[in-house]
Design brief:
The chain is built from eleven helices and eleven strands. It has 290 residues and is an alpha/beta fold.
Length: 290
């Protein structure tokens, strides 16, 4: 039977209904709101005020059905729409980059709140879409930003996002584990990083819409060496982080004690393991001794 959608409300309800077998009701409705906002280029409240008005033409109907087909297959809504919001920044996403998470917004908030008037150089390791570096550049206007990623395709997206948000970020295409990286980096006062931290053995606990669509290289680390990227970044701090400089990481919730020990091994002070809004140990921070 042909689908005939004549109002915004009918479109929203149709999308929500199509996704009801894949997502809980509230999540399906939230996705439906995002899709209608994208299609009509207006905010939620504006659309709700005209949700019962008859729509002219039917070009939107093909888009609705196309979006629903992809969403019903399990593709994340951020990839379907090609964008997401991150700390009041518009971030374009595709399958070369991870979808920015709320936890990483929390990391951005911690760094911004604790360094409000900084004029330091900040280096963001494993930048992906550039979301963290861009949020810091926008909200810490006196700081200078450098961002590193191994993926050329990810950096193309990050560069586009920086332009989209009028953010100035110097991007470097390099492997965090490479011995050549120190020669490519400037000195900095702050390091940030959200490198791969999910252990291979944890794949079985993850949703299919993550495993089937997001880049594994940006997600997983070997069970035998889950802190390899953090150790490499702290190695770099010996040469490229000024004394009294800060390091901020997003971490695996099961690695809080191990991260504290790693910071101690590198002789950092003011070491903190910080809980996220769900009460999980999600962030680690420390200061390089003077």
């Amino acid at each position: 039977m042909a689908v005939k959608l004549q109002t915004i409300k009918e479109i929203r309800n149709y999308i929500s209904r199509e996704l009801s077998g894949l997502y809980p009701g509230r999540e399906a409705l939230a996705i439906a709101h995002l899709v209608t906002e994208k299609i009509f280029g207006a905010g939620r409240m504006a659309l709700m005020l005209r949700e019962n008005e008859p729509l002219k033409g039917n070009s939107y109907q093909k888009r609705v059905i196309s979006y629903c087909r992809r969403l019903s297959a399990g593709e994340p809504v951020q990839y379907v729409l090609g964008e997401t919001e991150f700390y009041n920044c518009r971030i374009m996403v595709n399958r070369h980059v991870l979808i920015p998470r709320p936890e990483t917004e929390e990391l951005a908030d911690i760094v911004i709140r604790e360094n409000r008037n900084t004029n330091a150089r900040i280096i963001d390791f494993g930048t992906g879409s550039g979301c963290l570096a861009i949020a810091l550049a926008v909200n810490l206007p006196s700081a200078s930003l450098t961002a590193v990623d191994i993926s050329k395709n990810a950096l193309k997206t990050a560069e586009r996002n920086a332009s989209l948000n009028n953010a100035t970020v110097d991007f470097i295409n390099a492997d965090i584990l490479s011995a050549k990286l120190p020669g490519l980096l400037p000195m900095a006062g702050i390091f940030t990083g959200n490198p791969p931290y999910i252990r291979e053995s944890e794949k079985k606990f993850m949703r299919n819409n993550v495993l089937g669509y997001e880049p594994w290289k940006a997600l997983f680390v070997p069970d035998g060496d889950p802190l390899r990227f953090y150790r490499a970044i702290l190695d770099l701090s010996r040469e490229k982080l000024f004394k009294s400089g800060m390091v901020y990481f997003e971490i695996n919730e099961s690695m809080g004690d191990a991260m504290r020990e790693l910071f101690e091994k590198y002789d950092f002070s003011e070491i903190r393991i910080i809980k996220d809004i769900y009460g999980k140990p999600r962030f680690a921070a420390g200061r390089k001794k003077a």
